[in-house]
Design brief:
Largest sheet: 10 strands, mixed
Mean pLDDT: 93
Strand content: 15-25%
Low-confidence stretches: 1-18
Structural class: alpha/beta
Shape: globular
Distance between the termini: 59 Å
Bound molecules: D-malate
Length: 325
């Protein structure tokens, strides 16, 4: 080997050795988990519950950063542009798929601009109205909304939020268009519902169960096809006549494209450990969330699922004519 080549090989080995040991040492500082909706809401609750357990496994703080706006797309664009150094992760739900049909121009591609870490939990939704709303049952709600569609508003967390998806499916089922009132998360939307400033909200059990149990909202049913353990007496919307109405919220964890595979694998292990952590399992069960099945916990499992969800929701969303430029 001549001297020049010898030097080059030596330099490259040193570089790889530094990269490899940097990955072994990871994380040497706090890791950020970006949440695309307001603090205190359903995604934030899942992120903070998992984050506390992940931080115990990794031996580093997991900092939750709420990056709000445009139904989660501001945060997704931010993460897609972030350094792939293992210190930025992202939690997002069905919106990662639905936004591709809802936005004509999206500055990122959910399938190619991210590394896939794992799915985490599946969460049912619940259809609610303000406490003094005239309708007491789902049939009454359907009749009242059809008769008063110009006067009723529907809160959501913006185009791309699951509250928007669920509300849109409700409108489609009744063949009405209500006035949308967007918030930057369903935490502020729920406050507005409790304050009587908005009429209807479809939101995840991770936020709504305490309000349903306290009787501070009108509650019409769950969005799963079968009843859920956390609210065993609550009927489904499907069994009450909204045939095939189903929205289940799945939460996935991502990283910027190019984040080294050994780091993705370690984060995947930390998420899996969190999902087996008794504290996490209890909190999730109390809030109606189900731990995602094993088949969804690999990076490939999340990638395959996201692709299937884009294919599933695209035609449904396009059939409603809902989109943003
Ligand atoms: C939230 O965390 O505020 C919700 O997930 C927003 C939504 O998608 O409805």
């Amino acid at each position: 080997m001549n001297l020049r080549r010898c030097f080059l090989v030596g330099a490259l080995s040193a570089l790889f050795a530094t990269g490899a040991s940097a990955q072994q040492a990871w994380p040497t500082k706090p890791v950020t988990l970006v949440v695309p909706f307001a603090a205190g809401g359903p995604t934030d609750v899942v992120a903070r519950t998992l984050g506390a357990s992940i931080s115990r496994t990794l031996g580093q703080t997991v900092v939750i950063e709420n990056k709000l706006g445009a139904g989660g797309t501001v945060a997704a664009a931010y993460v897609a542009r972030s350094a792939p150094d293992g210190y930025t992760f992202f939690i997002h739900h069905n919106g990662m798929a639905t936004s591709t049909a809802l936005y004509r121009k999206l500055s990122y591609n959910p399938l190619t601009d991210f590394e896939f870490v794992s799915q985490a939990v599946d969460v049912p939704m619940t259809l609610l109205a303000r406490k003094d709303f005239p309708a007491n049952t789902l049939p009454e709600l359907v009749a009242y909304v059809k008769a008063n569609k110009d006067k009723i508003n529907l809160a959501n967390a913006g185009l791309g939020a699951v509250s928007q998806l669920c509300g849109m499916l409700f409108e489609r089922a009744l063949d009405v268009k209500l006035t949308a009132v967007p918030f930057q998360g369903t935490a502020p939307a729920m406050n507005a519902l409790l304050g009587g400033q908005v009429d209807i909200l479809c939101d995840q059990t991770t936020q709504t169960i305490p309000q349903i149990k306290a009787g501070s909202v009108k509650f019409y049913g769950v969005t799963t096809k079968t009843r859920i353990k956390a609210l065993p007496d609550a009927p489904t919307l499907n069994e009450q006549g909204l045939k095939d109405f189903e929205v289940i919220v799945w939460h996935g964890i991502y990283a910027p494209k190019g984040t080294p595979k050994p780091i993705i694998d370690r984060m995947n292990g930390a998420v899996r450990a969190a999902l087996k952590d008794p504290e996490v399992m209890k909190r999730m069960a109390d809030l109606g969330a189900e731990i995602a099945p094993d088949s969804k916990l690999s990076p490939e499992g999340l990638q395959t699922w996201l692709k299937a969800e884009i294919d599933k929701w695209g035609p449904i969303i396009r059939s409603t004519g809902t989109f943003a430029d």
